[in-house]
Amino acid sequence: MKTLVDRDREVVWHPYAPPVASPLFAVERAEGVRFWLDDGRELIDGMSSWWSAIHGYRHPTIEAAIKAQLGRLPHVMFGGLTHESAVRLCERLVESSPEGLERVFLSDSGSVAVEVAIKMALQVWQARGRPQRRRLLTLRGGYHGDTFGAMAVCDPVTGMHGLFEDALARHFFSERPTCRFGEPCSDEQFEDFTRLLEMHEGEIAAVILEPIVQGAGGMWFYSAEFLRRVRERCDETGVLLIADEIATGFGRTGRLFACEHAGISPDILCLGKALTGGTLTLAATLASRDVASSLGKGDPGVFMHGPTFMGNALACAAANASLDLLDEGEWKLRVAAIESWLEAGLAPCRSLPAVVDVRVLGAIGVVELHEPVDMAVVQPAFVEEGVWIRPFGRLVYTMPPFVTGAEDVARICSAIHRVVATI
């Protein structure tokens, strides 16, 4: 009899994998911060299912909300129709997000949220009679998604999309900030960004960046002062600022939104991943009143985007339940505790020969290596350790669910140390 993995390899194509994925593990069930493989092995999830399952798996509050919504309205098209779960979610996102964001466009995934943000910025300048402002300024080391608009603003080297380079729109890339989180940002460290903005101001529609934490492009944490200075320069030049908080939103860095570390508000904000607590796919793009009114007044007077499953009622119900859990406020203490546990647990990695750097911020722990990992070796090694860690490139990192306890964080850290020590 064929195993589930055997059947998978005949028909399924997995992310960032050849047609036949290897190594591959079959999951039977999940609960709390653990999932179980079909061979009975139990794994602590150190990845929050790609950073989304912040409350762990099968949280009763979220499951109850989905079941209740399923009994009333699972989905209805959002063109010309609305429903309570979507309106309530948008109201709450406006209330909780950085000041000045007043309009919410719902979509299906983080990549699409970024596409929506880029299209908003371009349409704003079309409406303002400045169509030549159609390029973006971004930071090297960034990652914004896998669709074509999003790929075009990913780092051209670490963004994993060099294969498509000739087919992508051409944008401007400033050097990655060298000023680390918690440090000041000097004029010299900000010079390249200033130079590019001044040189191409008339062409730039928006700056797009991941605030404070650059995710899949390098897991780099940079200075809040750098982000404040970006906001100031955008204000001086009239260039829009797009903040991609798909990875950082909803508490991952110790603040509800990473922009709060710098005390700034973007003109457009992208959210996703943890929005539904990792249960259903949903994303959101928030816009300021100025962005919305400019776009609405210009030709054609409507925003030219419309996902089929926009405002999916089940996903909106899950998101509202996840926000209910965040509103209880316990996540702040939990993330602060995880940060201290990660600091202590990953510190021994600093002395390993393979390690370049160890850094921690909120519920994010990163061990950067000199050389890329061999996934065929490292992934099974972590499974043998009883934890699920999914490295990429030179980065072995963890983003555990906020409900992960001290003992489980310690097991994650010790597993990282043991596996990295063998590299």
Report on the biggest sheet: 7 strands, mixed
Indicate the CATH topology of the largest domain.
Answer: Aspartate Aminotransferase, domain 2
Q: Any idea what the CATH architecture of the largest domain is?
A: 3-Layer(aba) Sandwich
- Span between N and C termini? 36 Å
Low-confidence stretches: none
**Count of distinct strands:** 16
Shape: globular
Order of helices and strands: HEEEHHHEHEHEHEEEHEEEHHHEEHEEH
CATH superfamily of the largest domain: Type I PLP-dependent aspartate aminotransferase-like (Major domain)
Helical region count?
A: 13
Q: What is the CATH level 1 assignment of the largest domain?
A: Alpha Beta
Question: What are its keywords?
Answer:
alpha/beta; 13 helices; globular; 423 residues; Aspartate Aminotransferase, domain 2
Descriptive account of the structure:
The chain is 36% helix and 17% strand. It is of the alpha/beta class and 423 residues long. It folds into two domains: 4-59 and 329-421, Aspartate Aminotransferase, domain 1, CATH 3.90.1150; 64-327, Aspartate Aminotransferase, domain 2 (3-Layer(aba) Sandwich), CATH 3.40.640.10. The chain has a seven-stranded mixed beta sheet, with helices on both faces. The chain has a four-stranded mixed beta sheet with strand order 1-2-3-15. The protein has a three-stranded antiparallel beta sheet with strand order 13-14-16, with helices on one face. It is globular and about 60 Å long. The two termini are 36 Å apart.
